[in-house]
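User: I'm curious whether this sequence folds into something compact or stays loose and floppy. Could you predict its structure so I can see for myself?
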Amino acid sequence: MRVRTRGSISQQAVMLFDRIPGVSCADRAMKTYTFPVADVYLGKKQVTMDELTPGYRRKVKRGEWLPINPFTTSISENKSVGGSYSVYGLGLECTGPDLHYQITGYKDALIRTYRVVVGIPTNVILIAGSDAASLYDEVVTKALADRFKGEANFVESLAELDKTVGMLQTPLGNVVELIKAFRRNGKRRKGYAKVSANSKDFIRFLSSEWLRFRYGITPLVNDIQAIMKALERGYEKAPSIHKSRASGTKSMTKIESTTVDSSPFRYTFQIVRADTCDMRAVVFDSYRLDAFDYLGLTFKNVVTVPWELVKFSFVADWFANIGDLIYANVPRIDAVCLGSAVTSRRNWSASYSCPSTVNIDPTHYSVSGLSGGFVMTNHETVRSPGGGGKLVIRSDFRLDQFKRSADASALVVQWLSTIGF
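Assistant: Here's the prediction. I'll summarize afterward.
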């Protein structure tokens, strides 16, 4: 195992002030003072751990297959973004009327003030370890499921041939039914009742056409494209290496706010925390492609077609990776698995700011505000061998995807129509 380090995060031990006395003070010169503050660290550090493959370049030139070596890279950075503040003391240090002094703090003012009045800044991971592990299992299962799959799924298309023929025989069937419904409504209803009935019929028409497009026309177009590609590519004379990939992302954001009194001021600090977990899986297999692979006429498609024919099986796949798990466990006799890997990228950060600084002793002090910011970022990349497929609840189970929202809305409309809504 090789370990490489670059950069450093070092302790910044002093805070600088410039003090300007009042005009009537004996000492009118600007003075610089230091204020010790421990545990303030700034800088950037990267640590990489990996394994070397002897003769790597020579083996690559010869076309040899090389194993996927694990590695880990960690990058930590604490960065102060400018900032300063000014404090005015009224009649405290000098004698005489309307005398004042000014203290101007600079050099990482915000984080140093936070360290004094609140404590040590932190950068924490928001995504739970169990959620990251579930995302890992999901992308691994998806990558395994996509192995040996063709451009289309002719087995399923043949099993649903009667539905496809029926769809092609009456391409405008829903349009005709909509026109008939409008005519019926015009004869039986008037005013608002007519508008309401026409609206319901039109919504049912749209939902039916959407489902026809998604699960009737689109698969048919895919089958035609797969036939064309199969004719163009022909077949492979010798086995070659094929990749199947899958990826998934989960992210979280959290905003924290804290108000602290540190005489003579009241500081309000805001912390914006963000965490992103990105998983990418890849599987390498060696086998020979032919026309049956392009068309999806394979043993894998035959074994899994019963699940595809289950009514609303695609809805179940929204919630859990049932279909992917079934596909992932179907082998191919002539395929040799060369290896698999999962690359995990984690990025989490904390951004500190002070949107409000209030003077709670206006008789003796005034303050111009605490500006600038402080950002803590951590990045970690880990590549490790891939595992086996597992059943998990999907990490992206939500309706913020257009197709899924449209499918769900269309299904609800169709269900309501069956109960007479």
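Summary: The two ends are 67 Å apart (CA to CA). The chain has twelve helices and twelve strands.
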